[in-house]
């Protein structure tokens, strides 16, 4: 009789997970604008001085801005990058205007559908609604064709390259089962699209929980372990953005962030203090300060 | 509380409410910044809610594409972020958390929408991508976001422009991220865009525009009370033709104002925070 294999643990440290990301990787990043991004993972990408990354998703925000400000980005493939009430993402804006980062502009549904196409293993996704826009002019991999059924003019959009998906979620067990709280928000469902499309998927979570905890609410397990490469415990992992049921976005820290992002010099000081010199997430949170964190916890449960 | 002449925001809210039908499914996003939030979010939300309370009780209000028929009057502050906790926890018919959402976008489930952009041109094309050339932009803006779909799939789009200036009302936008009427309705058909979609109105702090559907060009439908048509012409970067017979944007009646002030925005958080007229 052959020996029974042991149950595998997919729990790894943040630094080990990020060390598995190669320079030049194409990464789908979860979240939207100021919300639910895997920010702890972003900061570790900066600490390990990753380069030439391509980021994709829909409605990017502070995560792309941080990578742009740290010089880690080469390309963004998305429908937009912005900071909502804080206006344009200044590091991102500067990097594109100076030609350091290329933005491939997709509409919201295009940005998602090319990731869906990757997850469904399709060779293209048909796009019917961009005639007359300048979108195809700057996306040379789109191919115009006549629909073989109706003759309607369409564009064939190839699937996205998604080497890695990185998402931030509430809970996971060591095996890699990922549980989302019941009253989740639409971007968390989009995160699942990224997770299921990517070649490898890393999930940072607020809490590592027991396998029994997962089995008590299996209806909330939206990403069974077989779809997950690694899970990482990262409390406050979406900070300074929000995480539903845990904390809202941190206004105090966002103001500091946005002020710093006005010049490359000031942002370098920010990065040194909060990311590089901080060295790890515990020190990051210490430097953010308990008062900011407590204020951000004003969430009605 | 109900005394006093209507503000421009109130006039425009009731004007928009009158454009809405009982069978509409109306979509608006969360737009930020004082004047932009007023035009992009507060006026459309208040108008849809007002319509629900008056002539359109069956209208479906889709906030930010994921909250269905929220009780707007319960807002304690105007939300400034699309997924903030106070919005998630608002009393509503449905919290849509699936992707794709329940509404069938491509089939035309959404019958009326609201959007804005950095630039809009004489044919109603919109730009939220960049000012200057795409490869070396003078200003890199957010991106196409959902604007492309708004103008391609929604039954009729009401473009809400918080600033009316010759720099954002241009003959041709620097990047077409959403399509109006190049070549009129026939032009839209040739581009493969569905008939029955596209911009219906453009509303600014100075005036209301609609479109000549044959030529596809924007034209002044009305100017707001107290605005000189010459100011509209001076603030617009394309030709507007003869403005001598243009009417004044209709004022709301006292009954509509009363409902707006006491039931739609009882805390005065939506329509009182900023005077959009100052945003000219």
Q: What's the helix count of chain A?
A: 11
Biggest sheet of chain B, open or closed, and with what strands and sense?
9 strands, mixed
The order of strands across the largest sheet of chain B is 4-3-2-1-5-10-12-13-14
Which geometry of chain B do the CA atoms define?
globular
Q: Percent of residues of chain A in beta strands?
A: 15-25%
Structural class of chain B: alpha/beta
Helix content of chain A: 25-40%
Rounded mean pLDDT of chain B is 92
From the helix content, strand content and strand pairing of chain A, which structural class follows?
A: alpha/beta
H/E element order of chain B: HEHEEHEEEEEEHEEHEEEHH
What percent of the residues of chain B sit in helical stretches (DSSP H or I)?
10-25%
Biggest interface and residues each: A-B, 57 and 54 residues
What is the assembly state of the chains in this entry? heterodimer
Low-pLDDT segments, ≥5 res of chain A: none
Radius of gyration of chain B: 18 Å
Order of helices and strands of chain A: HEHEHEHEHEEEEEHEHEEHHHH
Radius of gyration of chain A: 20 Å
The averaged pLDDT of chain A comes out at: 96
Give the topology.
The complex is a heterodimer of chains A (301) and B (280).
Chain A: H1 14-19, E1 26-29, H2 39-47, E2 53-56, H3 62-69, E3 73-78, H4 90-97, E4 102-105, H5 108-119, E5 125-127, E6 143-146, E7 153-157, E8 164-172, E9 178-179, H6 186-197, E10 200-208, H7 211-216, E11 221-223, E12 230-233, H8 251-260, H9 264-276, H10 281-288, H11 290-296
Chain B: H1 8-17, E1 25-28, H2 34-53, E2 60-63, E3 67-68, H3 85-88, E4 94-95, E5 112-115, E6 119-121, E7 126-127, E8 130-131, E9 139-140, H4 147-153, E10 156-160, E11 169-170, H5 184-190, E12 199-203, E13 207-211, E14 218-223, H6 229-234, H7 254-264
Parallel strand pairs in B: 1-2, 1-5, 5-10, 6-11, 10-12
Antiparallel strand pairs in B: 2-3, 3-4, 6-7, 8-9, 12-13, 13-14
Helix pairs in contact in B: 1-2, 2-7
